[in-house]
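User:
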Amino acid sequence: MDNSKMEPLASVARPETFDDFIGQKHLIGEKGTLLILINKGILPSMIFWGPPGTGKTTLAYIISKQLDYNFYKLQAVSSGKANLKNILRKAIADQKEGKKSILFLDEIHRWNKAQQDALLPFVEKGVITLIGATTENPSFSINSALLSRTKVIKFEQLSDEEIAQGLERIVKKYCSEYKIDSDVIKAISQLANGDFRSAINILEIAITLADKNKKVTKEIILQIVQKQLYYDKNGEEHYNIISALHKSMRSSDKNASAYWTMRMIEAGEDPLYIARRMMRFASEDIGNADPQALVLVNACYNACKNMGYPECDVILIQTAIYLASCPKDNSAYKVVQQTREDVKKFGNLQVPMHIRNGVTKMMQEFGYGKGYIYDHDTEDKKSGQQCMPDELKNRNYF
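Assistant: Predicted structure:
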């Protein structure tokens, strides 16, 4: 790689084919919905919605090449109607020559209603195929009139494995003279937090800081990111920290619970993983001492799923504080263990005849439902009748 070149590595290494594109297999994999449309020559106007660095711009560019469309790009944050009109004039000229055009509008959510409305007639007439990119929920950030004329395409955050795969390809093609071990690529992938562009930028800076033997080390990577919170999401430290969070909440230690949650957030842990562990805790350690805890954690999970980082960090901390503050009851957890043991030990025990449902005359003749007491007919709504199999009639799990 020639460090004297001004063009960033992320631009130089931008994929130009679907085969080189990283991630989003649900869109452009073998059975990807978007790839199927493109292979049929169908290209609706679309809104690409997803986290930063997931390939929205790159995929729009690849599509334009695949279908031989002219490709025009605007940055919503620095462009307005005047820029749009200039591109539209070119697109109209292209159309007269039998050429189709894509307008890629990055950060489309930053355009106001009037600016977005200016796109409508040209989208409707097919002068341009609009591909807007946004990190915000289109339901809230895109005008309903424009939204009804476009197809929303959801981009998923890239996995560490997908980022590592992309980095290995770039290193082999553009940085082969440098010594970059797989553990360094793995560290970059995890610290990038699902953002491939960020990963490439880290790699590019690391190359400039490589030692005299052109070796890039993990220490260099941590120096660049200025984050000493690297931990292997599949290794010991991952399990140590989630264990620390679980036990801190169990001990009703709000300070420790908030701290260990933030340790995982800052290390780039998947927010949905943190929320799932909290969900388990809400039933295992709080249970019916505060049934609202499970409701809150479920809301936390959905909020993290819809918002992602960085917005969901305060939601995770709020939930950790709440769970640590709750009264504790692990009876549901203990009953799970005891009932499972009895089911395995005794097998398919018979349901007592009186609590079987005698839905037919024949079943009633065989004794189904005979002697059943309707609890609401008793004075205290508790009949005390046997509901367990005979072999377990005296079992008490509480």
